[in-house]
Each structure stands twice: as C-alpha cells, then as structure tokens.
C-alpha cells in the first residue's frame, strides 16, 4: 500500500519486457519493491495507439491498478519527438496538438497527475528561430489545455542541448508562468550537459515535480548499466535531500527485448537496480 511516510520510487515502463502483459509488468514492479510505473506513450505506432484506448480498456487498467497496487502517477509522452510542435510542417504540428490533447484526456482517465514532455523543438529536422518560436507557442497552448484538466505538464531535462539543463528550461518557465507547467530533471542527462548539476537543482528546485534516476556517460544517454557511467548519484541525492526534496523518483532503465525474459529474471534485474539506487539515496541522507 502507498505510504505518505516514505519517498515514492517508481520504475519506467520500458524497464519491463515488451512481451509482458500489463498485469505481469505491474506484478514484476511490485515484486521488485517499486511503488509505481511511469507509463510510456512514445513515437511508435503501437504506443501512440494508447491515446485511443476505449472505456473498456481504461476500466481494465484501473482494475489492474486496484488489484496490484501499482499505479501510473506519471506519463512519459515522448511521441512529440516524431511529431514536434516546432515542425515547419503544419500537418506535423496538427498531429502534435492532437497527441497533446489526447494525452491529457488519457491522463485524466488513468489517474496520471503529471505528463513528462519530450522537450525538443524538433528532433528529425533542423532547429532554428522559427522552430523555437513554434515550440514555445505549442507549449503555451498545451499548458492552457492541461490547466483546464488539472494535469501538470513537466519538461524533461533532455538528452540534447536544446533543454539539456535546468538553466535552459527556465526560459520557458518565465515565458509560461503557470502552476501547471514545471520541470522533470533527469540526473543522467543533466550530468552530461552541466558541470555543476547540484547548482542546477538548486536553481530549479521550486519547479521540480519529479526526478529521473538514470545512468549515463559522455555521449551515451540510454542503456548504461547503473554503476558504469559518470553520474554522481550520492552527491546529487545529498543535494536534493539538503534542499528538502521529498517527491517522486523514477528509475529509468531499459529491458533487453532481444531475448526472452522470465518473470524471475525481470524481477531480479529490477531489484538489482533498485538496490543500487536505494544505496545511493541512503548515502545522500534519505531514509528509504
């Protein structure tokens, strides 16, 4: 059962094998000791189709949450990498708005309180002043929609220089001052783009809604095993603890979908990651 007296620690959906059913994913996360799953709506057709889940599917998902105790308090809505607000193609921008509106409505139905945004003006196109202006307008319109639904939109501190630091995110926070527009720092990404991530956390602290715990190394932002990269986890947890951060942490890692995986193997991988993170949190002063 969820407790208001402990730091919530979740796991990214993509850390669980694609072949698992939703019930298997939830049970594996629970068996490994996680409190929640961050659901993914990425740029693939398969996951974008989740935006059109019917009421029967929504009801089944809510029933699984009740049965397992694993919920979806946050959504990684990275479909905008393929359909960005900053695109010069009006049809692409139209799709970006459609994804945003459907994402907010799906979040309401699933009980998601925070949608993590992929903060790219464009990804597969060249960035310039026009794409940046279009992106800013897209953010303004998105926050307006999200506010009406009571859903927080949080810019992820990304794996590209565009918004690779909290300092770069503050430009958008100033342009769109809203209680429904916040930031979602990623320890791994921030480490690669900032020489002083502790100072970055202090700079953006009032606007942090959740934090990704991910390992990275120079030039490599995905699938870096914990303990093999350059992220100073204990130092970063200490800074957050000293600042008084008591919100959600979400462990970001990826399952190896190139080979079959049993429930026992999946739980073992998740548990090992959790033990690594919890150890670093304790070194930073957290009681976990």
In short:
It is built from ten helices and eight strands. It is of the alpha/beta class and 288 residues long. Helix 5 (129-149) links the parallel strand 4 and strand 5.
- Series of secondary-structure elements, N-terminal to C-terminal: EHEHHEHEHEHEHHEHEH
Summed over residues and divided by their number, the pLDDT gives a mean of 97
CATH superfamily: Divalent-metal-dependent TIM barrel enzymes
**Number of strand segments:** 8
Q: What is the SS-derived class?
A: alpha/beta
Overall shape: it is: globular
CATH architecture: Alpha-Beta Barrel
The strand order across the widest sheet is 6-5-4-3-2-1-8-7
Strand content: 5-15%
Please outline the major beta sheet: 8 strands, parallel
CATH domain fold name: TIM Barrel
Taking Cα atoms only, what radius of gyration do you get, to the nearest Å?
A: 18 Å
Count of individual domains: 1
Distance N terminus to C terminus?
Answer: 15 Å
Helix content: 40-55%
The CATH class label is Alpha Beta
Give the helix tally.
Answer: 10
Domain Xylose isomerase-like TIM barrel: 28-268
InterPro entries: L-Ru-5P_3-Epase, Sugar_Epim/Isomerase, Xyl_isomerase-like_sf, Xyl_isomerase-like_TIM-brl
Protein name: L-ribulose-5-phosphate 3-epimerase
Keywords: Isomerase
């Amino acid at each position: 059962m969820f407790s208001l007296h402990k730091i919530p620690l979740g796991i990214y959906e993509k850390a669980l094998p694609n072949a698992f059913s939703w019930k298997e994913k939830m049970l594996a996360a629970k068996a490994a000791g996680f409190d929640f799953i961050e659901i993914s709506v990425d740029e693939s057709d398969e996951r974008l189709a989740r935006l059109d889940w019917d009421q029967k599917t929504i009801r089944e998902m809510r029933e699984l949450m009740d049965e397992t105790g694993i919920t979806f308090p946050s959504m990684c809505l990275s479909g905008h990498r393929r359909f960005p607000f900053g695109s010069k193609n009006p049809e692409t921008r139209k799709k970006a708005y459609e994804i945003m509106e459907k994402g907010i409505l799906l979040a309401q139905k699933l009980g998601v309180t925070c949608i993590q945004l992929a903060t790219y003006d464009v990804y597969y196109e060249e960035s310039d002043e026009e794409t940046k202006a279009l992106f800013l307008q897209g953010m303004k319109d998105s926050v307006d929609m999200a506010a009406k639904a009571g859903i927080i939109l949080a810019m992820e501190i990304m794996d590209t220089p565009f918004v690779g630091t909290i300092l770069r995110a503050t430009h958008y926070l100033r342009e769109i001052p809203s209680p429904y527009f916040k930031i979602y720092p990623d320890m791994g990404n921030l480490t690669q783009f900032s020489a002083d991530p502790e100072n970055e956390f202090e700079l953006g602290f009032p606007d942090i809604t959740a934090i990704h715990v991910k390992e990275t190394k120079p030039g490599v932002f995905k699938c870096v095993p914990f303990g093999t990269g350059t992220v100073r986890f204990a130092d970063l947890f200490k800074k957050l603890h000293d600042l008084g951060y008591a919100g959600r942490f979400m462990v970001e890692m990826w399952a190896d979908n190139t080979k079959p995986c049993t429930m026992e193997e999946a739980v073992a991988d998740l548990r090992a990651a959790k033990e690594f993170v919890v150890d670093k949190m304790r070194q930073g002063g957290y009681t976990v």
